[in-house]
Structures are given as structure tokens and as C-alpha cells.
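Trying the structure run again after the queue cleared.
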Amino acid sequence: MDWKERIKRWLDHKGLDEETRKSLVLLQEDEKSAEDAFYQDLTFGTGGMRGEIGPGTNRINIYTVRKASQGIADYIKSNGEEAMARGIVIAYDSRRMSPEFAEEAARTFAANGIHTYLYSGTRTTPQLSFSVRYLHAFMGVVITASHNPPEYNGYKVYGEDGAQLNLEDADRVIEFVSRVKDELTISNESFDPAQLVLIDETLDKAYIANALTVREQASATPIQAVFTPLHGASGETVKRLLDSAGYTDVSYVAEQMAPDGEFPTVASPNPEEGAAFELAKEYGEKTGADLLIAVDPDGDRVGIAVANGGHYELLSGNQTGAILIEYILSQKKLKGELPENGRLFKTIVTSEFGRAVGDSYGVKTTDVLTGFKFIGEKLRENDSSKEFEFLFGYEESYGYLIRDFARDKDAVQTVLLLVEAAAYYKAQGKNLHNVLTELYNNHGWYREALVSITKKGADGAREITALLSSMRENPLQEIAGIAVSSIEDYETQNRIFTDLGESEKIELPQANVLKYFLEDGSWVCLRPSGTEPKVKFYFSVKAETEQESDEKLELIKESFLHEVNNR
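Done. C-alpha cells:
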């Protein structure tokens, strides 16, 4: 069935709602847009689905949400009556159509006889993770598209441990969703009202109580800070948490505190970008704040800007992670609470900076594949093995987890510890920029960069595949005149030592990722994005001084990208 036949099928469907029907009539006036909306089914992958809102099989709308929900409902039913009785928890953020999509999902699950918990207002992704665990539910869903533009929304799926589904379970869910062939005929009108339970503030209080346990200090030291949720779901929760912890000198960006899926005051609600901090900077300059904090719409990623002289400097995820590791480990050591089996986790594209800090305290760091679900997977294994005591997990893309009562990155609990750390160091006459400089001087000047190249459509996907194949068939021997010492190929799960002609097995799941290690300790990693039509290049270097590190980073980046462009 081609895209024109798919449109006709939708228009011919008697149960199609009138708003969608009108949108389809208008859509047909733009053939290119119409084709894109119907040429395929919206991909349901290992993390769920994400796409533009609108009519079409390749868009997120009430029909594609029902289809995904029906597939998951069938998966839950295949696990028996206990799984159905434990049920599923649904949360949603501030995006366009998030409440409507959440309700469609909830009604679909309830119509299948599955006990369903639905939040009655916006909540963060980490609170959804916590709620699955707190309610002992079988699964969870959160309606969000993270920090994508306003025209996007998404559908993320969680397992009974509160983490995003591991690869094995995700594959099973994907299979069940793929069996649902007709998104238009799924009915969710009739269900037992007892199957659908609205969640009240009881779980909010429980989450706040758990979030307070991240504190290392018994009482709050005054600190001037500014917080913004960027029109997302975390504002009220963060304020309640900081008030409960005694941090009453925090200023809140009033223009951005209310949930609003149009994100009217920012070009992009992404705390990785300096532009997201513009209003926070204005507040900071008025109050003399030491720290600015911004959280993305669904409350799982957090970025900070720290006072440095007469301006605010935006820190990278790698830098913030290193500061948090230093604070956590130093405080536990001071109190005699640093466990012998303590463990840190980071992804393979995250800087070695944090590992160096951990090593200085004798704490082991374990690498996992990119994606926080792989940290969640390690935590799930540890629930039974008790191999380690979890101390911290993070990724370079601004995601952190301190206490594992949630099993996904949690910006809310991280905000509290960042405010506490800033207050602690200020009492010592330092700010977080001073702390970062000390860490560089003690462990070496690490520098990182990320370059993303967008390759849209089928042609773009083929180009990305061809590039990775070329890099495997004709691997680089050097980059910027520095010899390649080893190559990690996560697709073949082999680590190849180019200088020795030997190889060994990588004990990580299979993934289409390549990582080049240079003899000076620098590395470059190639990874196709799992959620966007992009190929990402990660760069990391280390040198004795800041200038040397900056210069080396530019040389390696320029040399590598030149090689890529000529493949």
C-alpha cells in the first residue's frame, strides 16, 4: 500500500474524528508533506517512539498512540493476570497534546483489562520511573519528546524496574506493536472504570521524601541560585524540594515556571544550549547568583551556568559530572562513608575526566553503551547480585542519577545536590568554577566536543550506513598525526589493538558504534543517533594545560572531519 492509498484509507474510515479529517484535506494540498506523513509507519524502537504531531501513519496522533498502546497491552496480557493486575503507570509533560495522548493510552490499557494509573497533571520522567517502582507496576509510559521543538511529541516505555526497557524486553514489545496492523479500528471507549485510577499528590510526597536523601549535608547553607524549568514539568516539584531542604534564597524564573508546550520564551528548551539561559542570566545578574540551573521539559536533563568573573559560564555535561563526583566522593570520605565496593557508571562517549576523579578516591568506574537504560540495566542486575554500591551514574548529554529510587536520569534530585554543592563550596570561599579548575589542575585538562551531521530520509540513512562500513573496512591508522592504538567496534564486539595486532572481546551489548583510541589517550567515537536522523562524532583529549588541550582538540576534530568528508 503506497502513501496515497494510506491517505484514502484514513479518509474512508467512518470513525475518523472530524479534526483529523479536516487536517488531512489540507495536508493533501502539499504532496511532499502528505507523502512524508504516510509513506511509512512511525518507528517504534527500543525506547518507544517520537515524531511530529499530526495526521498520518508516520506522525504521532491519537491513532498511532492507540496502536502503540494496544501492542503494549497485548505484551502485558501475554505475561499473565498478575502483570495485568500490577498494571501500568502513565505520566506526561507539558508538550502539545500530551494530556490527550496520555488519556488515549490510559483508556486503551483499561479497555484491555489492564489496571492503569494515570497522573492527572504534568509530571517529570524521573517521577514516572519512581512511580513504577513505588506502585510495583509492571510497566510505565511517559508522553514526552524531551527537548525537541514544540511540533514534536513522543512515547517512552519503562519496565517494572523503573528503567527504560532493556534490549531483550524492548525487542519483545516491538514485536507485539508490529502485530497491530490497523491503528484506525482500535476501540478504547468501553472499559471498567475501576481499572483506571487517577494518581493524587501521595506519590509526589513520596518522591520528594526520596529526593531529599541525596543530601550530604545535614542543614542548608545559604546560596543565591536561579532555577528555570524552561516551561516544562519540573518547576513545582523542584520548588517544593528546595523549600523542603531549606534553600529559600533560590530565585525562580517566573516567565518560565508554568508548563507551556509552546515554549514561548526560548528558541529551544534545551539546557545544553546557552540561549536557554538568557532569562536566567537576567535574574542572576539582578540577584548576584552563584549558580544558574535549567531543566528540560520532561525533567530528566539539567544544565548549569556558573559565575566566573563578571559573566556566567555554561558547563558541559562532562564538567558537571566531574564536579558532582568530586563532591559526592569527598563528602562520603570526610564522613567515613565511602564504601569499598562503591561504583560509578558512565557511557562510552562520556569523558574520562570523571573516571580520573573516581580513581583518585579508589572508586571504580564502569562503562556502558550510550543511553541511560544501560545504567538502569546494571542497577537491575545489582538488585539481586549486590555486587556494588551505586554512587553515581551519568552521561555527557546532561543526564545524572545520584540515588536509584528512580532508574532513569533525574534532573530533579540533581538540582538539589548541585545547589547543596555550590553552597558548601561557597562557605569555603569557592564557586563551582574554582572547583572545576582545581580538578583540571589535579587530573589533567580534559576537553570534549560533539559534532552532529543530519542525514534525513532514506538516502541519509544509507549515507550513514556507508560511512560506518567504510570506517570498518578501511580503518584509520592515525588522526592529526597521532597513531591509533586501538579500535573498539561495538557491532562485532571486538577491541582491536592496532599496534600489537591482537584483539579481545568487549563485554557490552552489540551496537553500531566505532571508537578510535589514540596513543596519547585521546579518542574519537562515531555513533548514529537512536532518535534522530543524525550521525554523531564525539571527541575527547587530555593535555597538561588548558591551551594545549584546546589546540589538540581542534587539530583532532579538523583532521577527523576532513577524513569523513572525503570518504
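The longest helix spans residues 546-565. Worth checking whether this holds up in the mutant runs.
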